[in-house]
Amino acid sequence: xxxxxxxxxxxxxxxxxxxxxxxxxxxxxxxxxxxxxxxxxxxxxxxxxxxxxxxxxxxxxxxxxxxxxxxxxxxxxxxxxxxxxxxxxxxxxxxxxxxxxxxxxxxxxxxxxxxxxxxxxxxxxxxxxxxxxxxxxxxxxxxxxxxxxxxxxxxxxxxxxxxxxxxxxxxxxxxxxxxxxxxxxxxxxxxxxxxxxxxxxxxxxxxxxxxxxxxxxxxxxxxxxxxxxxxxxxxxxxxxxxxxxxxxxxxxxxxx
Length: 256
What we know:
With about 260 residues, the protein is of the alpha/beta class. It is about 50% helix and about 10% strand. The protein is elongated and about 80 Å long. The relative contact order is 0.07.
């Protein structure tokens, strides 16, 4: 019994020797339990891509639309020709009617637009009605005659260079003399081949003074300034010759 007590006492002492000694206040404060590392959050799953609204389809320009339509029409027409069934022919006929309608619509819109801006109308400057044309032609003729008279008053005259042995020159000569007489402009005939024409009142030989390779030729000449301006080569009517004077007088300004 005593032996058991001794053994028990020794065990208690041994246990007491290994105990943590007491200290001041916090020294023997139980240490915080070892914190376990927080589990890492699971990797983020990739978010499902948001379905984006597809971009709007490109609007074709008017030129692109026309190019497409022309190709489509060619296909319909060729199909009707290569395989002329009733169905294919009707398809082309319907397409042709559609085009006719568009053409009519454009024509009517054109007329409406001219009423919005009359200055764009060709008929404002060039009327097509007979009575209006007569009035306008008379006005144009007056401008041409005024141009001849104005140049004549500035000292200009006409040189008519010709070959007396050429039938075309012979035929033109009386008309040129009549023109000069009618509009009061001086005329001098210049014979290139040495043969004068009786239908021209005043003639001289060229003798190499004028370098003219083509006849007949009409030259507008101003002796005061030694200015020479070609008016016409070849056969020309009096009406057209009047227009040439107007061209020179207005420095070839457009009349349309």
